[in-house]
TrEMBL record:
InterPro entries: Ap4A_hydrolase (IPR050126), Calcineurin-like_PHP_lpxH (IPR024654), Metallo-depent_PP-like (IPR029052), Pesterase_MJ0912 (IPR011152). This is Metallophosphoesterase. GO terms for cellular component: cytoplasm. It comes from Bradyrhizobium manausense. It holds the Pfam family Metallophos_2. Belongs to the metallophosphoesterase superfamily. YfcE family. PANTHER family: BLL5683 PROTEIN (PTHR42850:SF2), METALLOPHOSPHOESTERASE (PTHR42850). CDD domains: MPP_superfamily.
Length: 246
């Protein structure tokens, strides 16, 4: 089965629509959503409704820290992110907020694990920035492949049976074989707010039979997404950063 895995959509309708279109064109059979549906972007209602429909048709979804923040005041965020969350709260209806609140923190699926941040302590929202961070996550699960987001920058880590770690940044559209003799941590880039210097939206395709993963980048209408952020009175930097990929 070919999985299309998305993370950190952040209310960016234009980016999510573009990624879904490409995933479907490449014959994705199942959709996996790794959280942070809201925050930063100007279309939280559309993104959450789309996620709800995908889940109703068999998609897997987990909760991100921005999704958590919609329904609680305990999440600590920077000023711009907090402004966007408060604005988002006023846009979502009860059903949309309940959907976000009821999402699981992680999902085990055969020999795969899906989580927003990392596996050792999902609700503490740790970032995977290093091989040490990746090792902590990998040790916490027997899964062959763990998929996570949160950091908005693509990376791929692996750990051997002797706990030797490797890491690299995968190239766009170049399949990588995830060998069975190692555990793997696939860190996705972001659909809605990439931060690796490439403004195009990011997602991955994973073939469950061949165990090949392919990191994909998708151009989208950044100008429209940015314009809508400004029109809604959200912090201008949230619009400006989209064209910079940071």
């Amino acid at each position: 089965m070919l999985l299309a895995v998305f993370s950190d959509i952040h209310g960016n309708r234009q980016a999510f629509e573009a990624c879904l279109k490409v995933a479907r064109a490449r014959a994705a059979e199942r959709f996996i959503l790794l959280g942070d549906f809201v925050g930063y972007g100007a279309d939280p209602e559309w993104v959450v409704d789309t996620a709800m429909d995908l889940v109703a048709h068999g998609a897997v979804a987990v909760r991100g820290n921005h999704d958590e923040a919609v329904n609680t005041t305990t999440e600590n965020m920077n000023n711009e992110a907090q402004i966007a969350i408060e604005w988002t709260r006023g846009r979502l209806d009860a059903a949309q907020r309940r959907f976000l609140a009821e999402l699981p923190m992680l999902v085990d699926d055969s020999d795969r694990l899906f989580v927003h941040s990392e596996a050792s302590s999902p609700k503490r929202w740790h970032y995977v920035r290093s091989t040490a961070d990746a090792a902590r996550s990998l040790i916490a699960t027997p899964a062959h492949v763990t998929f996570c987001g949160h950091i908005h920058r693509p990376a791929l880590y692996s750990m051997s049976v002797t706990a030797k770690m490797t890491s690299f940044v995968p190239k766009t559209d170049v399949p990588v074989q995830l060998l069975r003799g190692r555990q793997w941590l696939a860190v996705l880039g972001s659909v809605g707010q990439p931060r690796d210097g490439d403004p195009s939206a990011s997602f991955v395709l994973f073939d469950t039979v061949s165990c090949q993963i392919t990191y994909c980048r998708v151009p989208y209408d950044i100008a429209s997404a940015a314009s809508k952020i400004r029109e809604n009175g959200l912090p201008p930097w949230l619009a400006d950063r989209l064209s910079q990929g940071r």
